[in-house]
Amino acid sequence: MARKTGSHSEITGPRIRAAAEHLFARHGYAAVSMRQIAAEVGVQAGALYLYTPDKQSLLADLMRAHLEGLLAACAALPEAPGPEARLAQFARFHIGYHIERPDAVFIAYMELRNLEPANFAAIEALRRQYEDRLEAILRDGRAAGAFTIPDTKLATLALIAMLTGVTNWYREGGRLGRAEVEAIYADMALKAVGATGIAG
Amino acid sequence: MARKTGSHSEITGPRIRAAAEHLFARHGYAAVSMRQIAAEVGVQAGALYLYTPDKQSLLADLMRAHLEGLLAACAALPEAPGPEARLAQFARFHIGYHIERPDAVFIAYMELRNLEPANFAAIEALRRQYEDRLEAILRDGRAAGAFTIPDTKLATLALIAMLTGVTNWYREGGRLGRAEVEAIYADMALKAVGATGIAG
DNA sequence: ATGGTAACTGACCAGCCGTTCAATTCAACC
DNA sequence: GGTTGAATTGAACGGCTGGTCAGTTACCAT
Asked: Which residues bind DNA (chains A, B) (predicted)?
């Protein structure tokens, strides 16, 4: 009993990545076996190795894909007028993008320690690129006198931690909708850096 | 070759917990074997089971001990005058306590999914108790007109995420000392909830 | 000196791990 | 209708897993 109907290579590959993302997020990279992933796809473990050289690459590829998508989407944002608007836009974007991909976000933040050094360096570089986007907004805003920030790097990390925290509790269909959460968090982010004007 | 000198039971127990905490934080619960823990203590794997019924209890005990210590220390805080002072005190306490226990914090936030349901419920209840402390501060402050908060629960989660994020990057002997970090974060926390007075 | 016992070893258990690969199956092409 | 080759199976590899336990050691009280 090999393949059943039609050519599967273009279907099985994405299905493996989806199953791995789902299982890694739920149980953690180290706790998930290749056989579990294969079972979720409906295939034998050996077949996975037609699509990934090993388990580690499966993890690294998921994380890289997520961060590259995040960076691309961030770069595609329209230019906003003024520091407050830029920060509000970033906050809303960050929450929206993360809320829609809870599994990928979870993995990207929790499985860093399971990456081999080379993969870790690559992923870390992408993460830093994204942080730099926010840091630039804060730096410019401070230079323009729009924000009150004792330390730009600290404010960057604090805001990202706050905004990303949404993924820990947000559930579709919960008490608050996505738009409300975005508005509330954008408002808090602006206030936290002492924004004078209102652009939430 | 059994025990070498003196009675070890009061030494080996804590050493096992310390080794487990260290290794779980570094590599993750699922990725650490009982034999690795035993090796770090300088003992054979079987000896671990004189001090813990199984690996799962080792994890649950570490998390429970951490959260109970956190709650006790929080409860021992002197009463602060007014909402701003209370929030500033909480922010400083939270950062200080977490900064000093990076391994325990890491485990408490990352290994929840590796807890069996019964243990998870117990740990989650402790975590919620701690959140309620902050939420009470915010609720009282809002009622007193000191804070501007659209949603108290959201603000609670946002602040905790922001404050806890410090443990992701803070290193002893880094660019900023503990006192500076506490001051900057307490200030941001106050501003984020629209505190009118200054009590950072 | 000797018996008791707390502390620990080291071998063992069944079972799962990531990974490999010869053999098989089946759609597509000639 | 036979051939090709991509897709997949299923068994196997050595090695590691959490956990058990009979046996050994070294301290302590007597």
From this structure: 33-52
